[in-house]
Design brief:
This protein has about 190 residues and is of the alpha+beta class. The longest helix is centred in the first third of the chain and has 15 residues.
């Protein structure tokens, strides 16, 4: 698996949640991911990695204060339907990981998601299964996958790409096939 750049993605449709509820979810995820030394520290992203040194701790309060409202209206006011977001990296130049979280959106055409790009050194498939389980517990998604950027290829749609593991709400369990199963049967709507 070292030739792959692992990726875990989870996607769910409209779910209205407050900033506090999102902060609680993210805090739980941070605490679970901290079992992996490469995922135990998170920093807010900035224009350059060198300037991305604002540490974000796992406390609900600290996460709450760093969640951003999606301000997309012409007057700069928040559009509540778009929820909240947070973009992070692990601060490790030798084994970088990034995480993007969109939570609390209840807009018809804007999904909630978590995208976790992992370093090549992220371990074996059992470890990927464990990390996917943490993400599923955090997000309660409609669909989630553990795959790689290479397996996603040109489609860029994780739920339509070959993957190592996938989760569908209607199945209620994380599943694995031999090799790289096709997740397209578990398409996200």
């Amino acid at each position: 698996m070292t030739e792959h750049r692992p990726f875990i993605g989870a996607y769910w449709s409209a779910r209205r949640e407050s900033k506090g509820e999102c902060a609680h979810r993210i805090s739980s995820l941070f605490r679970a991911l901290a079992t992996d030394p490469l995922l135990s520290e998170w920093y807010a992203t900035a224009l350059t990695r060198r300037s991305s040194r604002k540490h974000i701790g796992a406390s609900v309060e600290e996460i709450h204060s760093n969640l951003t409202e999606n301000r997309r209206d012409s007057d700069g006011t928040p559009i509540a339907e778009l929820g909240f977001g947070m973009n992070l990296w692990n601060g490790n130049d030798a084994a970088p990981a990034t995480m993007s979280i969109k939570c609390g959106s209840f807009a018809a055409y804007v999904q909630n998601s978590i995208a976790l790009r992992l370093p090549r050194e992220s371990g074996d498939l059992n470890h990927m299964r464990t990390l996917l389980g943490y993400v599923v517990d955090f997000a309660e998604p409609d669909i989630a996958v553990a795959t790689s950027l290479e397996l996603m290829g040109e489609s860029g749609m994780p739920w339509e790409s070959p993957c190592w593991f996938f989760y569908c709400r209607e199945h209620g369990a994380i599943k694995q096939s031999d090799g790289a199963p096709d997740c397209s049967s578990a398409s996200y709507q």
